[in-house]
Fold these 2 entries.
Entry 1:
Amino acid sequence: TQLLEQSPQFLSIQEGENLTVYCNSSSVFSSLQWYRQEPGEGPVLLVTVVTGGEVKKLKRLTFQFGDARKDSSLHITAAQPGDTGLYLCAGGGEKLTFGTGTRLTIIP
Amino acid sequence: EAGVVQSPRYKIIEKKQPVAFWCNPISGHNTLYWYLQNLGQGPELLIRYENEEAVDDSQLPKDRFSAERLKGVDSTLKIQPAELGDSAVYLCASSHRGWPQETQYFGPGTRLLVL
């Protein structure tokens, strides 16, 4: 079974601060996706990375896929209250394997 | 374009009772997924359909869970009888050609509470 561990599990920071969320596994994935899920809604895809070492930017969010395609990070610059939510990484292979999640709260 | 529709949004039942969830995928999406999500955790795949065929049901507890996707469009997930540990959010997702080629679009989920 492929496992994806996310850290931290919970993160609460002030508006305007920077943060990084990590997604780690001992398994190699063909691709890595990041989702954000708000209360009462399903996960919404933010980005897909497929190449080892790949970096993608989405406004204030920067996503990186590890060189060995076993880990990934999500960096948010100048966090805003609208960034609050559950962030999930998901590894691609024969099926999508979701990580354990990071619950992020941005305090105004 | 309408997203994935699920109903009901919430369901409260007593243990040992049956319950059913319904999902209408995005029009034209031939792949449909049912996931289970416990509080604060990532979704776990229960079953994946390609059109009307269940191509991956290895994680579906078949003693009490069943699913169908008649005509390859709408799908129903059933639990009979429900147990306390089944309390969770049940998510439905759909994609055009199936993982890993296409993005999965998730519905809002059905939140089940078993008392």
Note: The two ends of chain A are 40 Å apart (CA to CA).
Entry 2:
Amino acid sequence: AQSVAQPEDQVNVAEGNPLTVKCTYSVSGNPYLFWYVQYPNRGLQFLLKYITGDNLVKGSYGFEAEFNKSQTSFHLKKPSALVSDSALYFCAVRDTTRGGGNKLTFGTGTQLKVEL
Amino acid sequence: SQTIHQWPATLVQPVGSPLSLECTVEGTSNPNLYWYRQAAGRGLQLLFYSVGIGQISSEVPQNLSASRPQDRQFILSSKKLLLSDSGFYLCACRRGSNTEAFFGQGTRLTVV
């Protein structure tokens, strides 16, 4: 079965500094990986995905993520954090089980707090 | 692009009362549909998914059920709510194995 781990419950960073939100995955077959952001009492918004191709994936709002097969990681990054980036971030992996409905398995989430 | 409509946005229901949450999708056809529950503002638990009309797969045993009467309609129900059914319920839609999922804005259910 596939799984993702987000080892940090919370990440604090000062505005203007680079940020990294960590994600590692476990999946049989080729990994399809996703990052989502959630603001309070709202649904999840898609940020970016890795399916194939370049290991560095660029997404919405200046976010990017680096796929590292040897480390089974897909860390989310941004060169310069904004206060408005403060939110809950989820990493997800697609279920590769035959007949599994292509469902996504989510990590437990990382709360990002960007301070002035 | 796909749009997911969920309603109501918030709901307060007494223990033992029935539940019906509706999710409808616009902008796509024959999508995979999902119901997730988020407890305490953190992890997402997949409750049900559907790959077509009338086809429902349950991920965890529970007090809830789901139905898909039309291609772009997904309903979450309960005959008798429990306190433990409280949470934030999210409907999601996905079309294709390498595409992202789109989420509705969620329903905050409080069982009292």
Note: The interface with chain B takes residues 32, 34, 36, 40-46, 49, 51, 88, 90, 94, 101-109 of chain A (CB under 8 Å).
